Amino acid sequence: MNVLALNWKKRCPFFEKSAILEVGNTSIFHYLISNFLFMNININFTGMESTEAIKEYVTEKVESLTTFFEGIESADIDVGMKSHHHLKGNVHYAEFKLQIPGRPSLYVVKESDDLYKAIDKVRDHMKVELEKVKGKMNQIDREELRDIKGYDPS
């Protein structure tokens, strides 16, 4: 079993051992992860009407997050307008909740006077959060590889 498949098996306990079959240097498991598992996106509107333009914009922004982190299971998105807010005028908000296998959910909320700005702010902040998670996972991978190779830093 290659190291990539071993690491995914540790992070994704819901996959069975039979899903990891090696073909040359690439496991079928990795192929399935990268090509056939799609993110489930749920979009809710609060205090405003849903439009196709907003749905498409939100979907585009959420799907762009997969370039920073593969394997996002689902995204629960809530966009809307707050009715009781201490600021005057229209206050729009966007909140993203992403579910990653083997990790706690990532949750980000941002507000702005424009809905599209709020969506952009949330997407940018979520990108930073995903990069943090990816960095932690890569650190764990490096430590495991050092243990496998018998590397001793002292």
From TrEMBL:
InterPro entries documented for this protein: RHF-like, RHF/RaiA
Transmembrane segments annotated in the record for this chain: none
Highest taxon of source: Bacteria
Pfam families linked to this entry: Ribosomal_S30AE
Official protein name in the record: Ribosomal subunit interface protein
High-level lineage: Bacteria, Candidatus Magasanikiibacteriota
